[in-house]
Amino acid sequence: MSGVGGSPHGIRAVAVSSGPVLTPASERDLADDQALLKRFARPEEIVDLVVFLASDRASYMTGANYLVDDGATAC
Q1: Contacts of 65 (CB under 8 A, 6+ apart)
Q2: Side-chain half-sphere exposure of 10, counting CA atoms within 13 A
Q3: Cα–Cα distance for residue pair 33/46, rounded to 1 Å
Q4: Which of the four pLDDT bands, split at 50, 70 and 90, describes residue 31?
Q5: pLDDT at residue 40 above 80?
Q6: In this structure, how many other beta carbons lie within 10 angstroms of the beta carbon of residue 40?
């Protein structure tokens, strides 16, 4: 389907869906509830993916949701 959406204009649409991320702001609320995944994500684990997706190296990637949740939503 040529010419659909924003791709002819170099516009890509991707989403990053993370599980809980442990930051100084969230630590007081999340620190005692890590039983499911054994730990929460660190911000840099999410940022590394976002930086890659925003780079020219990911220019062919569009229309996808990337899960960063330690497998919590895996079937």
Answers
A1: 14, 15, 16, 17
A2: 3
A3: 20
A4: low
A5: yes
A6: 20
Which pTM was predicted? 0.72
Mean pLDDT of 16-23: 89
What is the C-alpha end-to-end distance of the chain, expressed in Å?
30
Kindly report the length of the chain.
Answer: 75
Taking 50 as the threshold, does the pLDDT of residue 1 lie above it?
no
Looking at residue 12, what DSSP letter applies?
-
Phi then psi for residue 21, to 5 deg, are -115, 125
Q: What is the 3-state secondary structure of 29-57?
A: HHCCCCCCCCCCECHHHHHHHHHHHHCHH
Closest CA to 41 of 64, 61, 15, 67: 67
Between CA 19 and CA 62 the distance in angstroms is 21
pLDDT of residue 55: 94
